[in-house]
């Protein structure tokens, strides 16, 4: 095929494609134009910024500002967005079912009155970017569910769906938002509650959560505060009771009972209200107030309410008063330590006798830093931290700090602190428990936020009083919180790593078990099989694997002593048994476990030879380490003659 022919064919294809595209574009444009021509109002819902409705006694003017719909009257009233959007959606979707032109009306000798348009049933004005569409609604059409209408700028009568009239409300309150509080509770940064005869409560939000500022300074329970805010923002108007007149000289058609000022008539004056709620926000947003007044005489489940800066009076659920009847103690954070276990990197325990400090590093786990430097037991510390973080305050005590003797806190038995950060110096001098007391050498006492002092348990042993060093308030906690620290809270042995042995089975080349003089030894052959070292005996593979499994990560139930001057007191001067592991990788390295003969409270004391730590194993674990590893080899069968 010649090049010229190819080019001609390509040009023809392009021409056909362009023609098809233009045709489709023209048809699509024609369809959209036809659809637009059939609409009653040629506006998209998103274009409408204002809608005015007149129907009977209703005169409503709704405007959209910053995405929210508001009513021009009553002053400051918010519109119900769903109601407004339904009206707009219905108007924009309505079609022109029939159009009766002016000439057709003249030929039929019909006037506006014949279509109910001389004295219309309703008028609607919708404001869009290009101007205002004014819709007049008249009589019902004789056939179907239609209604006659006309646009003020057109001379034709239009038959459209009756739904256009039915969607319009007959009274203003249908259009009003029944949510008492405007906006989102998440934006609130301050909450104030005043109740007649019950004092003042102020709570503020910080980066660390909610804090009570008055009448006490204390952490607040974030969930309890959120429940209060949810109740306030979930409050709905049961009844719109009173609104100011449209004009100052208008006749009063809904005067308050007994006349006089509105706020006093409903018990909503600031100094007479049953309760007042103040909400604060970011500096750019104005604060808001809610006043709750007297009970509604005709509705026992409702009370009067109004918003600060507004005159309208509502009736709302009486239960909101019960929700607001909270004390500072009701909203206080009941966690002993407001921190998650995974966040804790420092544990400090302290008494007048000294201090025990433990740190956690991401790559090394827990370490005892003071008074000695040891590897700590990660499981023990994890259980301690989880227990303290989960502990809750049972009761707050409304007493002054001068009652510390009464609560066993003048001379507390132990203090505890959980912290996320590890300061460069976390060992201040041991302080007197009272923050007002001076430290050693005449230095002023150091306040340590979050340091908790425990007093002596109650005579019944089920509760203990405690307080934070930086706060004067006393509270009661279950005695289990103190028991988490054990009988000797500052004994570092209670937290030392309890790992007796940590062996890799593949590195064990030989095992010797026995009392002296009756040892049994097995060795790993080049093919990996275990064989008895003594002639005339054979290895028991299952027993060998059992010993390896027990020794792979041998953990003690407790630590009995460290660098004990007399190991014989633990049955280790002449141990009942020894277990020696020969290891590969470093020639001559062996680890020998000494197993004592004496039982202490059902435990067997053991130690690794050359290491001054005496551990306590339960008898069952110790028994797994001292099984027979070999047995006599079977006699060969007799030779046949």
Description:
This protein has 641 residues and is α+β, with helices and mostly antiparallel strands. 19% of the residues lie in helices and 34% in strands. The chain contains 12 helices and 38 strands. It has a 9-stranded antiparallel β-sheet with strand order 12-11-10-9-14-15-16-17-13. β18 and β19 form a beta hairpin. The N and C termini lie far apart (103 Å). About 4% of the residues have low confidence.
Mean pLDDT across all amino acids: 86
Parts with pLDDT < 50 across at least 5 consecutive residues: 27-35, 427-445
Net shape: elongated
- Provide a count of the helices: 12
The percentage helix is 10-25%
Our measurement of the CA-to-CA distance between the termini, rounded to an integer number of angstroms, reads: 103 Å
Question: Strand pairing plus helix content: what structural class?
Answer: alpha+beta
Largest beta sheet: strand ordering: 12-11-10-9-14-15-16-17-13
Largest sheet descriptor: 9 strands, antiparallel
- Radius of gyration from the CA trace? 43 Å
The proportion of residues in beta strands is 25-35%
Give me the count of strands.
38
